[in-house]
Amino acid sequence: MKNRWTKRLIFGIVVMLLFLIAVIELVPFVWMFMSGFKSNSELLLEPFKLPEKWLAGNYLRAWKNGIGKYLVNSVFVTVISTAMTLVLSIFAAYPIARMRYRFRKASLVFVMSGLMLAPMVAMIPLYKILINVHLYDTYWAMIFPYVAFRLPFTIFLIWSFFAGIPKDIEESAIIDGCSPPGVLWKIFVPLSKPIISTAGLLAVRTFWNELMFALCFTQSAKLKTVPVGLLSLKSSMETEWPVLVAGLALSTLPVVILYILFQKQLIRNITAGGVKG
């Protein structure tokens, strides 16, 4: 009886701590979305009170001043970059993890060495390359560097999962007449949904928030992504803080929705991946 009450007490404490952490995490988002409805004076003088009059026009003004276009650009660049990163990582991780060839370990070291290269170091060479190949000030000027610098980490994640899949599953598929590409796409990819989902979500977050490449490798207003667009919005409306906060809130909405939509699937995939063998 005593052990039962002890377990209940520990469970209650854990639940309260998790609830407290959730509240701490949600407060900045709630404040940001709420502040987007305030007037300029309310935001500056009473930042933590509810708005006396909810000004939905702030969000409309932020949208008309470019946030809508910036969101479309960010969605396009993020989706293409994430898809390319995942596909290329799967193709690279499979032979390194499962095939036997002479330079397999050297291939892994070569991939991992990419984690040590800081993006800032490659800014000038990348700038010259993009100009020479006529990709500067295009979507691809952002997509190709994004993919290149994200590949090492994503390959490492998927490689580590591929390497842990039992050989019996692969050998059984080959005995049944499955070709190596079939083994990859019919066996390994379905079993690796947890790590692929995780790698994809991490890549989306990185690409969505990236500023440096988007700022240096593009100059047309029509190509601006959300981080660069928010800088432009700040320069044009530096005294209208509620509109800026509304633009910031709109820019975070797609990623928040994505995490909410894929949360259950990600947890389910992780649980299923725990018994993959």
Word description of this protein:
The protein is mainly alpha-helical. It has one domain (69-273): Orthogonal Bundle (MetI-like fold). The protein is 77% helix and 0% strand. It has twelve helices and no strands. The protein has helices at residues 2-35, 40-45, 57-98, 104-113, 123-132, 140-163, 167-175, 180-191, 193-209, 212-216, 226-236, 241-273. α1 packs antiparallel against α12 (241-273), α7 crosses α8 (180-191) and α11 packs antiparallel against α12 (241-273). The longest helix has 42 residues, at 57-98. The chain is flat. Mean pLDDT is 86; it is low at 273-277.
SSE diagram, text form:
Blueprint (H helix, E strand, L loop, with lengths): L1 H34 L4 H6 L11 H42 L5 H10 L9 H10 L7 H24 L3 H9 L4 H12 L1 H17 L2 H5 L9 H11 L4 H33 L4
